[in-house]
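call fold(seq) -> tokens
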Amino acid sequence: MSRIIMGIESSCDETGVGLVRLHDDNTVELLADEVASSVDQHARFGGVVPEVASRAHLEAMVPTVERAFEKAGLKLSDVDAIAVTAGPGLAGALLVGVAAAKAYAAALDIPLYGVNHLAGHIAVDTLQHGPLPDRCLALLVSGGHTQLLLVDDIASEITELGSTVDDAAGEAYDKVARVLGLPYPGGPPIDKAAKNGDGAAIAFPRGMTGPRDAKFDFSFSGLKTAVARWVEGAERRGEDIPVDDVAASFQEAVADVLTMKAIRAAKEHGVDTLVISGGVAANSRLSELAAERCAEAGITLRVPRPRLCTDNGAMIAALGAHVVAAGRPRASLDFSANPALPVQIVSI
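ret:
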């Protein structure tokens, strides 16, 4: 008999509630995916303010739950299990989601699972492209995370091959956008400007690609600084800033490094499927270059549609469904959120 899994996501500035159906053959079907974003409340600060995010989650949680059930045509009593983001993320924001999930689970007397936000970004791809192969590589690229992950079992076995040593790619986008006078968050406006620019116009550095650098780690702080120094130099000389060319050249450097290391990791570990997810996965140049390089290397590329790449409840519900299908133990109602939860811990 199929089961209904509810997912709650509140790790940053999106309140997400997703509903999925776990079928008898362990395939997962998306029924509803509702998100309330507080991004507009953070825009004037140029970044997420934790206290503002927590308050926004409190205000949005119940209305978002109600919209999800209305969309799916279900009642709370139809839910068989609840999954909630236990970490990583902002402490206060996580606590709102965890508290809500505990309340619903206790009231309905159903199992509760605390799951990993990062693993959710991988699991969400199964809602669009079906089950993951027995072994795959995941490139997770977002505002707070840039990681290469080897996935042997989405419900229990994920190994981190590399991570960012400073700024995540999405964070670098936000900071470069500020330098160029573009709005927050920086990803979409830079991508839009880059379409009219020349990615080869400025030779920005490719961080951590030298022979002595860690093979699968990333660094975007130097790239961000290089863009800022280039713009400052042009302004001192009284030159107009070619925003489109700067955006395109910056974006080319990011996509080049991300795809280069992902292909290298896939070849070294004998993996023939690459999943790219996280908010930056919606970037057009990253998807384009990844498709080109994966085709050349004989690697299957899977990228969820943009709506599924950003933080949402569907990804947590999807991961919860895989955890349930694998028979993983449920969480006790006294578990705590962990803002620094490592990706190796898929569920708690």
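The two ends are 25 Å apart (CA to CA).
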